[in-house]
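Hi team,

Filling in the usual template for the complex we talked about on Friday. All components are listed, including any nucleic acid strands or ligand strings, so the model treats them as one assembly.

SUBMITTER: L.P.
PURPOSE: interface mapping
COMPONENTS: two
RESIDUES: 227
SEQUENCES:
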Amino acid sequence: DTEVTQTPKHLVMGMTNKKSLKCEQHMGHRAMYWYKQKAKKPPELMFVYSYEKLSINESVPSRFSPECPNSSLLNLHLHALQPEDSALYLCASSQVDRGYGNTIYFGEGSWLTVV
Amino acid sequence: TQLLEQSPQFLSIQEGENLTVYCNSSSVFSSLQWYRQEPGEGPVLLVTVVTGGEVKKLKRLTFQFGDARKDSSLHITAAQTGDTGLYLCAGIDGGSQGNLIFGKGTKLSVKP
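RESULT (copied from the run log):
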């Protein structure tokens, strides 16, 4: 089973709203990721969690706040977003965050629209 | 900064034709992955190649990893309309960070 589950599938939020994206995997993976993807572009890395600790933050604005409650769950808290933050947000996981042969598996994505 | 050059960016072919997509870099990757993505969906993993010179086959898809682990190709034989989609190559850098470096993608359209 190589499944990464994301909810919600679609989210529309106003610029003053607070919402969260959720991600879950039960593959025993110890690295989890958030990526952002705009139309016709490849995914861009936002955050990496390794063993439940934030290991990489790719200079993401503070209106995006990640959280890793346990090794299976990853959240992305959203607050005061801008319309240009509208994108497909992808969660991913891998056995570890580095190493020979490491493979990263993606969820189906959460399509976010900020109005 | 590692870069992964993917070509072609767009490809439109007739059903039954063969095609090859290339990913090239001047840097070494510890592994390279190929994904296929539909609009509004997440990338679906097709294959991971790890060993230099490795060839993997997935039905009509053949993946090669260069001997020096700097380049890779995806060859599709007798393309079908169901092969239509965005194909992404992504390499895990050989450094300590283990980041996934994406190519820009190849948008394939197979017409009946």
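MY TAKE: Chain B has no helices and eleven strands. The longest strand of chain B covers residues 29-37.

Thanks, L.
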